[in-house]
């Protein structure tokens, strides 16, 4: 397992959108999904696979998370996704909420599975590995990173790399504003 490296740590923020509807229902492992344009901004060094880190919804506490980035071969997805499983039980859905994550380490590459049970077992192993890694001091310190306490615009959708916005214009609802349309 690679630790820092691979473009890590990597910070991302976006509005939670509805995903494929499988996390809670079929897998019993709910996920919060980033919009496509946040996924499209991932740098090349963030390859498909499973990552661990910290996540925060709106102004709530920061929790451990495990994230799948990729095409989910078992389901033959047609679009790449960033699906975050926050290691906390939430009482309600939080679609439309702001999700902030920092990805700190790489667990494994994306792979296909022969059965749903095999997939679920691998996800549980990924969750356990994420929990173990995030208990280490070098990763635990990110729980209180200033990224999780910064203010952002309502429904800000953007990517932050090493604490600095990739583009100095914040993305709001998929657009950076009038300057996007200048020629």
Automatic annotation (TrEMBL):
Its EC number is 2.7.1.26. Pathway: Cofactor biosynthesis; FMN biosynthesis; FMN from riboflavin (ATP route): step 1/1. PANTHER family: RIBOFLAVIN KINASE (PTHR22749:SF6), RIBOFLAVIN KINASE/FMN ADENYLYLTRANSFERASE (PTHR22749). SMART domains: Flavokinase. Keywords: ATP-binding, Flavoprotein, FMN, Kinase, Metal-binding, Nucleotide-binding, Transferase, Zinc. SUPFAM superfamilies: Riboflavin kinase-like. This is Riboflavin kinase. Gene3D superfamilies: Riboflavin kinase-like. It comes from the Eukaryota. It comes from Petrolisthes cinctipes. GO terms for biological process: FMN biosynthetic process; riboflavin biosynthetic process. InterPro entries: Riboflavin_kinase (IPR023468), Riboflavin_kinase_bac/euk (IPR015865), Riboflavin_kinase_dom_sf (IPR023465). Residues 5-135 form the Riboflavin kinase domain. One of its GO terms (molecular function) is ATP binding. It catalyses: riboflavin + ATP = FMN + ADP + H(+). Catalyzes the phosphorylation of riboflavin (vitamin B2) to form flavin-mononucleotide (FMN), hence rate-limiting enzyme in the synthesis of FAD. Essential for TNF-induced reactive oxygen species (ROS) production. Through its interaction with both TNFRSF1A and CYBA, physically and functionally couples TNFRSF1A to NADPH oxidase. TNF-activation of RFK may enhance the incorporation of FAD in NADPH oxidase, a critical step for the assembly and activation of NADPH oxidase.
